[in-house]
Structure formats: structure tokens, C-alpha cells
Amino acid sequence: MVYTANIGMFKVVIVRTARMLTVVYTHLLEIHHKAMTIRTILEFPDPRLRITAAPVAKVDKRIRHLVDDMFETMYEAKGIGLAATQIDEHQRIVVMDVSEERDSPLTLINPEVEFIGDSQREHDEGCLSVPGFYETVSRPDCIRLRALNEKGDVFELEPDGLLAVCIQHELDHLNGKLFVDYLSALKRQRIRKKLEKLHRQLA
Ligand SMILES: [Zn+2]
Q1: Is 170 a catalytic residue?
Q2: How many CB atoms lie within 10 A of CB 96?
Q3: What pTM, to 2 d.p., does this model score?
Q4: How far is the CA of 85 from the centre of ligand 1 (A)?
């Protein structure tokens, strides 16, 4: 009897502790979530989109906070990729999620790309910084990527298809380049005029 009573008490203590930990954990999650901010996305032809981003010297708390903001901003805008340049942060950071389910976040810090083979692939590209416009761009099909993740660890990928396109598109942003730069001057000018008009109307 005594033994059973002790077990019973032990159970109560365990359940109470587990409940308390759950409450604390939920609270911390809420604080973390509230700390994330949806940032303003710069739009073409904003000259800040032409700035070349600097390498990240150290993946610390400040960088991880920026990565959180970038994911929050990208998911909110229903994009599949976002470069730090697009939110006026000129550091070499990209966030992506090309999955249908929106549950496969990928962080690239100081990404470097090498092209494998000569095959090119055409793909219709859009951009959160060029809203409403989709144009066909031809890019190398197979690439090798080397980057740091949000923990600062090096990783490598050899993607093809949509992921390879998206990585190249986002890396261009870090170098101040936009997908409209691959189009004819006439087409680019037309997009620029339409967006400038829209920005004037919204101002
Ligand atoms: Zn883009």
C-alpha cells in the first residue's frame, strides 16, 4: 500500500511538472513568434535592389532573427524564395521553400553555386519584387550549391529543376540582379513603367 501511494504521488509530481513545462514552452513559443516581423519587400525599380550583399561573418542570434523575419515575410507573401536584399538587408542570406505543403524551409547563408554541364532549362519566373509579372528565363539546369545553414554548418546540394532555378534566382538578388535583367530592354522598360505607375497610385 505504501509503495503504491508513493508511485501515485510520483505520478502526480511528474504530470504536474510536465504540465508546467508545456505551459512554459508554449509561452516561449508565443514570445518567439511575436518577435518575428513581416518586413516590407522592395519592388523593382527600387535602386536598393541593385546593392551587392556582403558575406555573413558569423551566424549568430542576430542573423537567426533575420532568417526568422525572412521566412515570416516570404510565407506571408506566398513566395517560394526571398533574398535578404529584398527586405533591404544587404547580407548574403536566402530563405526558400519550394514544397507544395510549405513545410520544407531551406536557409542558405553565404551560398556559392557551381554549374554542372552545359544543359539549360527554360522556366517561367516571377519575383516578389516584381509583383504580377511572369516571364520565361533560361538558366543552367544542374548546379552544385555550397552554403551554411542557420546553425552555421556547411552543407552541399546538387539540385535540379525548380530548386536549381530558385537558388539561381535568389543568388542573383544577392548580386543586385533581377530576373527582368534577362529580358529584352523593351520588355524590362514596359514592366518598369507599369510598376512605377502602380507605386505612384499607391503612394
Ligand atoms: Zn526574386
Answers
A1: yes
A2: 23
A3: 0.83
A4: 10
